[in-house]
Amino acid sequence: MTPRPRRSFHLSWVSLLAVFFACLALVPLGFVIWATFATGFETATTLILRPRVAGLLMNTVLLIVLTVPACVVLGVALAWLTERTDMPGARLFSWLSVAPLAVPAFVHSYAWIGVWPGLNGLAAGVPISIVAYFPFLYLPVAAALRLLDPGLEDQAASLGLTPRAVFFRVVLPQLRLAILGGALLIALHLLSEYGLFAMIRFDTFTTAIIDQFQSTYNGVAANMLAVVLVLCCLVFLGLDYAIRGRQRYARLGSGVARRTSITPLGPMRYPALLLPIATVAFSLGIPALTLGHWLLAGGADIWRLDAIGLALWQTLRICLIGGLATTAAAIPIAWLSVRRPCAKNRLIEGCYYLASAMPGVVVALALVTITVKVATLYQTLATIVFAYVILFLPRALVSLRASIAQVPKELEQAAESLGRSPARAVLATTVRLAAPGAAAGLALSSLGIMNELTATQMLAPNGTRTLAIAFWALTGEIDYAGAAPYALLMVVFSLPLTWLLYQQSKKIAGR
Amino acid sequence: MTLLEIWTLRKHYGPVTAVDGVSLAIESGSRTAIVGPSGCGKTTLLRLIAGFEAPDGGSITFDGALIADERSQIPAHKRGVGIVSQDGSLFPHLTVEQNIGFGLKDDAADRKIRISELMDMVELDRAMLTRRPDELSGGQQQRVALARAMARRPRVILLDEPFSALDTGLRVATRKAVGAVLSAAGITTVLVTHDQAEALAFADQVVVMRAGRFAQVGTPREVYAHPADPATAAFLGEAIVLAARLENGQATTMLGQIAIHDRNRQGQAQILLRPEQFSILPHQGTEDSASTNFTSGIITDVDFCGPSCDLAISLDKNPDFSLRLAMASQPLFEKGARVQISVNGPAHVFS
Ligand SMILES: Nc1ncnc2c1ncn2[C@@H]1O[C@H](COP(=O)(O)OP(=O)(O)O)[C@@H](O)[C@H]1O
Ligand SMILES: [Mg+2]
User: In this structure, what is the dihedral angle of CA atoms B72, B78, B81, B84, given to the nearest 10 degrees?
Assistant: First the structure.
């Protein structure tokens, strides 16, 4: 037997795969850069520097500046109430603060229009965005609150700080990273959301690109709007990176965490309920009200079972295929980032996050432009699955990473010492034990796919009619009653997946 | 003058009674050590004093004023009691300077001076002021935590096992340094620890705690030499407890006659001997049965631990009884060696 360098063969294969997928994921970004150069400087400037773009930019900035801070305040307040006070029903409201994620964003605006038919523009966009997206802030902040070392708050009190000062000087600064992460996620969603804003006739870059795309198929104008949209995304990613800096708020010391302390609200105990109740009323009550109304008004007529059945079948099929592909594509980088944490692998991982930060409409535009040139790929299942992998890979990555990290490395080594080859050792131990994480990753990426409208619309094979597409088509024909069963099904199938997301956020936080 | 007084203080968590009706007076400027096994309620007691928990019964008086009883409590931020916890609890998002200055007013004119002063007191280099806590070693973190607690000039500082996360050598050095700093500043100190040697070395007053109660309170020498019961004796150091018959200031035991202090006690009792009261010599072979100065035996087991040896000795007169004790190492200590044991009284008699 000739000795060979340990693991080298095995390692290089995994790295190669990870790099290959990363390159694929960066295709849309590459497309945007290519489009800028291909258009030529002069055409590009005339297309970008025009009042229409300025108006869209204004809309986008206003939307983000109004929505994100409101989500921060609401998310932090709800997280604090549910995690750290004796508010009655805290556990229930904790779940209800996550549940709005089960309602697709465009179903939120459908619901609001059902209650207030005249609603449109920024005045509608901001409140609907808040109820649709605040859970993205609530989740990480609640998890961070659970992880905080209560010893620090005690310490601050013994140094003479009032409870109020303790919150602002000790608790809030430690939530900074969670708040930043949630805010970034919301900003990126606002940039890439189509259905929510199209339904209330609020123009953003994404809606404008799709309008362009539908009128002058694959025009240069759409590409240039996409360039500006990507620049906006990059600005937010850069901001996040700059603020985050190199800081990490490590927990110091070895002491076991004391149970987090609960602040008694005293006479405010019941009045405090007003906030979560109002939030639930707007984020879950309004969808329930509108759906209930149309389902009752529509009666049995709206349940065209053949059409609904077909849409359901197509949705589940595409969710499963997309979810499996996404999870499989995430395995190499998940394993590398846990087992071989080095600068090179962090860079590869960063590529996936950057790629998924691209709005769905940009990804779709890129893939359309490329696949029309390769006719065999245009509007095929392969193309749309590829788009899903780019958009949702980080969801699978997070779950996989957490579960791989829980499998002690020593198990792999033990399996090797029992005579397995490195690759088979990994298969026999880590892969086996990380399976629940992979299942969670599959579920979470499926949740994203089920509620995805933009890319699905632009890329899916002709004749595809998923729940989301069917819903969108019916609301486009003002058949609000007919759309209700599709919305209901999306919510019903999303609820368990959202529950999983909620449970997972608790687990990652160590509970 | 009594600075801090607790009276029949009680605290329970559900069915667990963590602190079970304890009373204690702490003199101004003194050093008190509360020592007991893990889980006996030491941390809970400190948290009650600091104001992080509310008592279920009893009261705490600070400087003559009631600060907590079961009905009402002054909140922690108004008590002016400093606390240093086991892991330091430094704020991870702040630098060393911001940590130390945390309790000081931001605009205080002498803020910078005070922080430098505190850094000198705890013997930390001022170059560390800009570092973050995770860039400090464990011992340095504890010094920063102490400086932070002292910044507001509290009259009492509570130390909750502050040295237990440090390794042995550093532990003793840090304990000495902390003791010196606090004494120099004239701050009343309450140290909680599960290490009896640390408690005895640090304090003027030692409180032995067991299962939520105080087993004994006294000076280090008092509690070590005259423990209230065999369990306390064993907790504070190696204890050899023997059954004895008392008569005229002498205890008759299986190790012969041993002097005791109390001439008036008669009858059966248990007595305590510490290993340092024993001398073990090679057997001379001149034992006559009338002599009561020493007892002879055979070493049946030796665990060599370097400077000391754990011995098991079976006595000639009573082969079923195995005397176990740790003694400073000698070449003599070999398995099977015949030795004679003599005891230097007086022994402590348990009541
Ligand atoms: N917050 C709490 N909730 C429930 N039980 C607690 C809590 N804090 C302490 N206890 C219990 O009270 C007892 C005393 O704990 P503690 O004061 O921490 O002991 P020590 O500091 O002496 O190790 C233990 O049995 C512990 O389990
Ligand atoms: Mg403790």
Answer: 100
Which ligand has an atom closest to residue B47 CA?
1
Residue nearest to atom 27 of ligand 1 (CA): B39
Residue B183 CB partners (closer than 8 Å, separation 6+): B31
Mapped onto helix, strand or coil, the DSSP state of residue A12 is helix
- Mean pLDDT of all residues in A437-463: 88
> How far does B346 lie from chain A, in Å, by closest CA?
43
Q: What is the DSSP string of B248-286?
A: TTEEEETTEEEEBS-SS--EEEEEEE-GGGEEEEE--S-
User: What band does A255 get if pLDDT is binned at 50, 70 and 90?
Assistant: very low
What average pLDDT does range B249-269 have in this prediction?
87
Judge whether A53 and A228 are in contact, CB under 8 Å.
yes
Q: Which residue of B has its CA nearest to A149?
A: B89
Sheet bearing B2-13, strands edge to edge: B16-27, B2-13, B57-62, B65-69
A462 touches chain B (CB under 8 A): no
- Check if the beta carbon of residue A396 is closer than 8 Å to that of residue A327: yes
**B52 Cβ below 6 A of ligand 1:** no
Residue nearest to atom 20 of ligand 1 (CA): B39
Q: What is the pLDDT of residue B135?
A: 87
Report the residue from B51, B92, B102 with minimal CB separation from A252: B92
Compute the mean pLDDT over every residue in chain A, rounded to the nearest whole number: 86
Interface contact A158-B148, CB threshold 8 A: no
- Comparing A7-11, A12-16, B18-22, B333-337, the range with the smallest average pLDDT is A7-11
Residue A155 sits at the chain B interface (C-beta within 8 Å): yes
The C-alpha atoms of residue A320 and residue A449 are separated, in whole angstroms, by 9
Ligand (nearest to CA of B40): 1
Helix (H, G, I), strand (E, B) or coil at A372: coil
Least confident of A128-142, A220-234, B19-33: A220-234
C-alpha distance from residue B333 to each of A23, A485, B343 (Å): 74, 89, 18
Query: Which pLDDT does position A85 carry in this prediction?
Result: 92
Cα of B38 from ligand 2 centre, angstroms: 7
Instruction: Give phi and psi for B345, each to the nearest 5.
Output: -70, -170
pTM of the model: 0.83
Q: Which amino acid is at A86?
A: D
Q: How confident is the model at residue A35 (pLDDT cuts 50, 70, 90)?
A: confident
User: Would you state the pLDDT for residue B268?
Assistant: 92
Q: How far is the CA of A187 from the centre of ligand 1 (A)?
A: 44
* Domains parsed from chain B with CATH numbers: 2-235 (3.40.50.300), 240-349 (2.40.50.100)
pLDDT for the residue numbered B210? 93
Give the separation between CA A143 and CA A147, rounded to whole angstroms: 6
User: Is CATH 1.10.8.420 the classification given to domain A20-248+271-508?
Assistant: no
Alpha-carbon span B103 to B154, nearest angstrom: 11
Whole-number Å distance, alpha carbon B39 to ligand 1 midpoint, is 6
